[in-house]
Design a protein that fits this description.
Elements lengths: L2 H4 L9 H20 L15 H18 L3 H22 L5 H19 L7 H7 L1 H6 L4 H12 L2 H12 L11 H13 L2 H22 L2 H18 L7 H28 L3 H33 L1 H8 L2 H5 L1 H16 L10 H23 L6 H10 L12
Helix pairs in contact: 2-3, 2-4, 2-17, 2-18, 4-12, 5-6, 5-17, 5-19, 8-12, 9-14, 10-11, 13-14, 14-15
Length: 401
Amino acid sequence: MSIEATAGKFRHERVDVADVLRGFAVLAIILLHSIEHFNFYSFPDTSGQSTWLTFADKAIWDGLFFTFAGKAYAMFALLFGFSFFIQHDNQYRNGQDFRLRFCWRLVLLFAIGQVNAAFFTGEVLVLYALVGFVLVATCRLSDKWIIGLAVACVLQPVCIYQIIRAISDPDYTIMRINTAAYWGATFQVQSGGTFWETVKVNLWEGQLASLAWAWDHGRVFQTAGLFMAGMLIGRRGWFKREHTGKWGRALAVALICFFPLHGLDNMAGDYITNRNILTPLKLILSSLANLSFMVMLVSGVIYGYYCTGRIGRVLGRLIPYGRMSMTNYVTQGIIGSALFYHWGLFLQMGITASELTGIAIFAVQYILCCIWVNHHSHGPLEYLWKKATWIEFPFGRRAVA
């Protein structure tokens, strides 16, 4: 009998609103990635197009980036930490130590991320696999410790250090990772390379560029903080219906925080001329503003799902899409690469047409998800990840200390 079967006596019930949030996040990601041409920022000349189409292009670009950029991935990270809690707590209550098993699960996620990265340079699973070990290190700590560490991470400690150094030392210069050559290499093959050239560059230069971008833009510490926050949400059961009121208070706090943070981020450059202070300060402000907006989105979805009949039913339709979030996320990158990169169809589209394409990708994926979940409990990648996670290893049999 497998470890999974013997350790499966206690199970948390599946939290549908978490699947709604996953579906919402992956939908937001495909809408953004489509107008970016999946990190291939090459667009046709639009100087001769109509005024209304130019307006539509700008409205879609600005609207989507304001609403989802930096927020959809943050929501995804929060849910990753929540999923870890469910898995860890299931095993803990059955007398099993899940920590080493989860380390193996992260190794598998790294491999899945490599498949995704072969097609798409902006993929995030590799980063999650690397940062995910923070969950193993902190899962037995008290809530107070986890809150403190999560807050410390989302406040961007490296940026705080840089600001203090720049204020105290006029000769101090912040270090930035020069990724221009890496991005240039990926753009070159996206523009004119073969499939195998694209895979080769994406798995080296593309990976280095993506991870360096994540470090320079505060995504590493932010992701760690959100992982821990998601784990804490699981501990306290905040995704259950009876805790909807807490999300109302979270929405109020997020509203109060977002507007001054967003305003200060836009204003800071008018009053601070020292780039070594301005750059890390703006990163802190924009990161916190995005997190505030993300909390607004999460609160709105949770409240809408639990407390409004019609809106709740509409949001509930995202459950099949959310249950297959990894499959949808990875296949989005493959489809996008095949549509927009030179090795594939190499479509030349403006912003509006690209967004309609993204909506079409979502529609096809959604229909397939609805069909699939009627016959299977997991999506294809989710199933493979789960089965590989529970391969028989000696460490899987350890009892909880």
